[in-house]
């Protein structure tokens, strides 16, 4: 990647000149991409257990991330129906859902936004106040940062990417998602991934990672590696809302985007933007 291109990406993410990535780091990321693309398939069996939530999950202060809890499966009889729905019916099902207590406090469900045939899928945690008010994921300050991150990949949220959350309704007061809420909501995400069939998932934040990969490992330990969810490659990075409070980790997020971009190019054999 040329220095000019790199400077442009940094500017798009609002990193400023102080956060320039050295060539050596970029080369290391390129090596990691190849290495983990080769080993990622080995993680497939364990990730088949993902999105089966059960044990309590807690949202920790950004500066002191708590260990992620494993998830378990809850069969409430809805899963088979949801997994048979096509896109419009799935949207309607989410909009009318009363499967957990969050239906009583939400203003809008947040199904997701973007291209349902996209190569990229970005999965966050849960709607916040702005998302609950608008019915769209990643709006407000965190949304603007995500848009800048997408711009660094020559993408916009309506072009070759589908963006959604693990939970489709806002937890009151932006509290941590309850395990039963994740359990009730997870079939929707499973079906979205099945229908979109993304080439690459970018999991943003601990709860997205927990739901997809069923791991209690830290994001720091999972970054820079290629994971898999149902045979779809997954790259882990920080949630934009976290980055707004932890500016020094923006560089790490940018490294993750570089890794994701390289991985997508390897998966498709073409430039990222040309896939759009
Ligand atoms: S969070 Fe998910 S399961 Fe709960 S009411 Fe909303 S759509 Fe339904």
Quick description:
This protein is 42% helix and 9% strand. The chain has 276 residues and is α/β, with parallel strands linked by helices. The protein starts with a helix and ends in an 8-residue tail after the last helix.
CATH architecture: 3-Layer(aba) Sandwich
| Structural class by sheet pairing and helices | alpha/beta
Indicate the low-confidence ranges by residue numbers.
16-70, 272-276
Q: H/E series, N to C?
A: HHHHHEEHHEHEHHEEHH
Query: Strand arrangement, largest sheet?
Result: 1-3-2-4-6-5
What's the main sheet like? 6 strands, mixed
Count the helices. How many? Answer: 12
- How many domains make up the 3D coordinates? 1
Q: Regarding CATH, which class?
A: Alpha Beta
Question: Key features?
Answer:
276 residues; six-stranded mixed sheet; alpha/beta; disordered C terminus; Uracil-DNA Glycosylase, subunit E
Describe how the helices and strands are arranged:
Blueprint: H1 3-12, H2 23-39, H3 44-47, H4 79-82, H5 87-95, E1 113-114, E2 120-124, H6 129-134, H7 140-151, E3 161-165, H8 179-196, E4 200-204, H9 206-213, H10 219-222, E5 227-229, E6 232-237, H11 240-245, H12 250-268
Parallel strand pairs: 2-3, 2-4, 4-6
Antiparallel strand pairs: 1-3, 5-6
The structure holds iron/sulfur cluster (SF4).
Iron/sulfur cluster (SF4) is lined by residues 94, 97-100, 102-103, 109, 167-169, 181, 184-185.
